[in-house]
Amino acid sequence: MSTPAHHDHITLTDALISKVYTDYHSRLCLYAAVFVTDHTVSEDLIQDCFEKLLQQKNSLRIRTSLPVYLYSMVRNRCLNHLRSQKKIAPEDIYTISADQNALQAMIEAETYYHLHCSLQSLPEKSGEVIRMVYLDQQSHEQAAQSLKVTPSTVRNHKARALSLLRQKFQVLSHLKFF
């Protein structure tokens, strides 16, 4: 089941909300971290948003894309939390919600998600090499030793993976995320 991107309005079901929760939870947590630095609090706020979706699923009319609605919902929930904790003045709400950092965080959350999915779709050895060399910051020699292959094989897997990732992101750059 794919997440609806844009319709006249979206009809929410338990199954759709569950799917959206699975698909967007980690991205929304990254986004919430722009506003609320406590990870536990941001997790709770995301949970509150999904509970509200469940409670209002029969009466709620979403006339925008579901991802945009979710990001707006999380932003508003975070700002309400900050206001209730007296961490921001009411007159600062607009400035914070329109802040370029919030937009940047949304873009980063979506990019990290697509990068993660792309890494997961790489052939096993190529993905392993990319994780070792870039995420674990191992040298070609260290990765080769761990994988019991030659450094040349590591370089070949890395080149193949980077080529596949470039192709994927070239396609993604033409797609609309929202």
Q: Which helices and strands appear, and what pairs or packs with what?
A:
Layout: H1 14-32, H2 39-55, H3 66-84, H4 93-97, H5 100-121, H6 124-135, H7 140-147, H8 151-172
Helix pairs in contact: 1-2, 1-3, 1-5, 2-3, 5-8, 6-8, 7-8
Describe this structure in a few short sentences.
The protein has 178 residues and is mostly helical. 70% of the residues lie in helices and 0% in strands.
Account of the 3D structure:
The protein is mainly α and 178 residues long. The protein has two domains: 1-110, Rna Polymerase Sigma Factor, Chain: A, CATH 1.10.1740; 122-178, Winged helix-like DNA-binding domain superfamily/Winged helix DNA-binding domain (Arc Repressor Mutant, subunit A). The protein is 70% helix and 0% strand. It contains eight helices and no strands. The protein has helices at 14-32, 39-55, 66-84, 93-97, 100-121, 124-135, 140-147, 151-172. The longest helix has 22 residues, at 100-121. The radius of gyration is 20 Å and the shape is elongated.
Span of the ends, CA to CA: 17 Å
Order of secondary-structure elements = HHHHHHHH
- By DSSP (H or I, 4+ residues per run), the number of helices equals 8
Class per helix and strand makeup: mainly alpha
Query: How would you describe the oligomerization state of the chains in this entry?
Result: single chain
Helix content: 55-70%
Architecture (CATH level 2) name of the largest domain: Orthogonal Bundle
Search tags:
178 residues; mainly alpha; Rna Polymerase Sigma Factor, Chain: A; Arc Repressor Mutant, subunit A; 2 domains; 8 helices; elongated; disordered N terminus
